[in-house]
Amino acid sequence: LQLVESGGGLVQSGGSLRLSCAASGASLENYAIGWFRKAPGKEREGVSCISASIGPSNYLDSVKGRFTISRDNAENTVDLQMNNLTAEDTGVYYCAAVVGSLYRCYFRPASDSWGQGAQVTVSS
User: Distance (Å, rounded) from C-alpha 72 to C-alpha 74?
Assistant: First the structure.
């Protein structure tokens, strides 16, 4: 499974961005997928994940109510809609297959491989 992130950019505080995670070689519908971010000087952290198929999703507390993860099975993508962005959301965002099932997902990558990520910069 190879994943490619897109949709990052520069936005002012309070603005919105939509990230997309596209797959090649397999259907994302069969995988629990997570979005992670790494801010300068900080450890990588899980932001959101969605269970396989149409299962439930999880969110980091600081993004609840602002971020929404969703699947587009026709496009074979998992998207992250980010609203009301703040400077604390700045970082490189990565998507990855995560440990999970049809009904659960966890902020635990299923492998040690990461893509190039998408840079998100929020100016205050």
Answer: 6
pLDDT one digit per residue (tens) for the chain, 124 residues? 889 999 999 999 999 999 999 998 888 988 999 999 999 999 999 999 999 876 789 999 999 999 999 999 889 999 999 999 999 999 999 999 999 988 899 999 999 888 899 999 999 8
